[in-house]
Write a structure and sequence with these properties.
With about 475 residues, the protein is mostly helical. The chain has 27 helices and no strands. Helix 15 (about 250-265) runs antiparallel to helix 16. The chain is elongated, with a radius of gyration of 31 Å. The model has no long low-confidence stretch (mean pLDDT about 95).
């Protein structure tokens, strides 16, 4: 493998050096094939097309290079150029099966249904083997979809997968096409049927996982991705889907192991979303330095996303590095799509730094975005108390309670009354809170950890504790 990689690197160096120095480079057909496959796999379609043109100039009568040109022009939506390459191909390989299949693909892609049907029927009389018939069923399904014959399209694509359970383009259409939403249960039945015949088909397990993921069944999706991953351990997409599902289920340590396996693959792709999940996993496990490193990588990939800076702010706030936390929250609120959480975080940092005017402004911005944001209401009230404005704080909280009520707000109100030495009113509110939101009573202890030792509070908690 290393020898082959070194040979490819040397070939790439020869070709790219020739581009720079305008040397006259002659390559064999096999060498051109290697270059074309490499650039295509790298999604460098401009370079792929350049190599195809150079190959045709040196090997004019070789049909393979016209196939590459037609394929790349199709991908680039260059219809006339794609058909021009196909015309050349029909001259040098008039009866070539792959050339006809490519012509069918291009015709279907650009919506030329009648000539596509003609090529399809011609191929049906000549191809052999389930894999080829599966491809024809796939293109038939696409044509039927273009004709709005969705039931027949679904059946054709289903037949394609039955003929070749590794036919991924058909699987992609079946699971992603919005036209097939009505057939979702039938699709799961198909997957179960195929797995009963061959429980070692990693691809069908993977698509079964996607089906369950779309259906909101996280545990079933996780099991399916785990099966796909165990059957083919060197497939990075399986690692990524498995890791993402573990993340969704808050299994952060296992998720990080799966993300590590993903990034060990040569085919792994760096993405903002993945580094955000990695960072969040580390953050939830309190590995804050590793979290910040992952978020830093996410910034390199997409610095316009507000949530990177929000989570960085959370990390620095957890370390009580209020100034740098405030800086990151400040960057978050400058970005489109930011949430009231960002303003609340910024306000709390300013409050910790005794920058009361700035804190008040931030809390007001949070509440302007969501006037039922209870955490911001209580944070703002606490700021008022700390500034000696107890009456204003109590009025603000009580007025808010008249507008709406939730667990966070009412337990926060209990805390505000305790902070202002209004214990009788606090206990009255506590009874109301416990009768309606007992399961959230830990919120009060979070406000006042010393209340764990308060016998009267503990006695009230016991009154409302569910009995077995």
């Amino acid at each position: 493998m290393n020898k082959k990689n070194n040979q490819l690197k040397a070939l790439l160096a020869r070709y790219e050096n020739d581009e720079i120095n305008n040397d006259s480079l002659f390559l064999s057909e096999e060498e051109f094939d290697e270059l074309l496959a490499h650039y295509y796999e790298q999604h460098d379609y401009d370079r792929t097309l350049e190599v195809a043109d150079m190959a045709i100039a040196q090997h004019r009568f070789s049909p393979e290079f016209y196939k590459w040109k037609a394929l790349i022009h199709k991908i680039n939506l260059e219809e006339d150029d794609a058909f021009a390459a196909l015309e050349k191909l029909s001259i040098y390989a008039p009866n070539d099966e792959e050339a006809l299949l490519l012509r069918l693909e291009v015709l279907v892609h650009f919506g030329h249904r009648e000539p596509a049907r003609e090529v399809l029927e011609r191929l049906r009389t000549s191809v052999r083997g389930d894999e080829k018939f599966s491809l024809l069923a796939f293109f038939d399904g696409l044509l039927l979809m273009q004709e709005f014959r969705f039931e027949e399209s679904f059946l054709a694509l289903t037949e394609a997968v039955k003929l070749d359970p590794l036919q991924e383009p058909a699987l992609e259409e079946l699971i992603n096409a919005s036209e097939f939403v009505a057939y979702r249960k039938r699709l799961l039945k198909l997957f179960n049927h195929l797995l009963a015949k061959d429980p070692f088909n990693d691809l069908i397990w993977y698509y079964t996982g996607l089906w369950h993921d779309d259906d909101g069944n996280d545990l079933a999706a996780l099991d399916a991705f785990a099966n796909a991953r165990s059957l083919k351990s060197d497939h990075p997409v399986y690692d990524l889907e498995y890791a993402d599902k573990l993340f969704d289920l808050d299994r952060y340590e296992l998720a990080l192991k799966a993300y590590t396996a993903y990034f060990e693959s040569d085919k792994a792709e760096d993405s903002y979303e993945t580094f955000m999940r990695v960072g969040r996993s580390y953050q939830m496990l309190n590995h804050l330095d590793k979290a910040k490193k992952a978020y830093g990588r996410a910034i390199e990939l997409n610095a316009e996303m507000y949530d990177i800076f929000q989570h960085l702010g959370e990390c620095f706030a957890a370390e009580e590095k209020w100034r740098i936390a405030a800086y990151n929250y400040g960057r978050a609120v400058e970005r489109e799509g930011h949430t009231p959480d960002c303003w609340l975080g910024l306000g709390l940092c300013h409050a910790a730094l005794n920058e009361n005017k700035e804190a008040e402004f931030a809390f007001q911005k949070a509440l302007a975005m969501d006037d039922r944001y209870s955490d911001a209401v209580i944070a703002y009230a606490v700021l008022m108390v700390e500034q000696g404005e107890e009456v204003r704080a109590l009025t603000f909280v009580n007025d808010t309670l008249e507008r709406y009520e939730d667990a966070s707000l009412i337990y926060g109100a209990v805390a505000i009354h305790l902070m202002t030495n209004r214990r009788a009113e606090a206990l009255t509110l506590l009874n109301t809170a416990l009768s309606e939101y007992y399961e959230a009573h830990q919120m009060l202890i979070d406000f006042f950890p010393d209340l764990k030792k308060d016998r009267e509070i503990e006695a009230i908690f016991n009154l409302y504790r569910p009995r077995e």
